[in-house]
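>> received
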Amino acid sequence: MDLAKRLYSSSAQALAAVPVLEAFSNRARVDNAYGWRRWSASLLAIHQPQRMIPLDCPWWHVGATREVAEFLALRPGARVFEYGSGASTAWLARRAHEVISVEHHGDWHKLLSPLVAGFTNARLWHRELAGEDYIGAIAEAGGQFDLIVVDGRRRIECLERAIPFLKPGGIVLFDDSGRKRYRAGIARCGLREHRYFGRSYCVPYPDFSSILHG
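>> returned
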């Protein structure tokens, strides 16, 4: 499966540079954010935040993305903490008052930093994955958050650590929630789950994202 994903990613990146497909992606930026053209363009942008950020898509389920966007639209002062950065960091910064994103991968952090530098309301931290620095970054950030995104490594540990920092009425976006290794931890976390399955940005197959409600 990992080999198939790598082959798909490399093929999509090569196709994205074909002029007619690049023109299609540019046009898709102004189409319906949840429609088929924007989703189709995102397939060519997998693992390319420089293409995903202009498309204004996070790598989540399309329906879950819409729910998060509607949630943030009702909270103009929303604070967001994100485990695992990417195009979603910029997407969140466009919709929230404050975004703090922690990333464990040094090269990925280096790639993303200039891409999100223009968002003055976003902070992108690099923390080592081992020990407490990564999962404990939410305590370092201080205060509580309207939205917490769990989309990096050590996800169940991150979820458990994050729950005390979730504001009353806040939500958690837990991506790839269909993976077997996450199911028991989600079930015991004490939050109510709305699990989405189907069309997801960047991938041609149906996938899962969950919104967890307090």
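>> Residues 99 and 122 are 5 Å apart (CA to CA).
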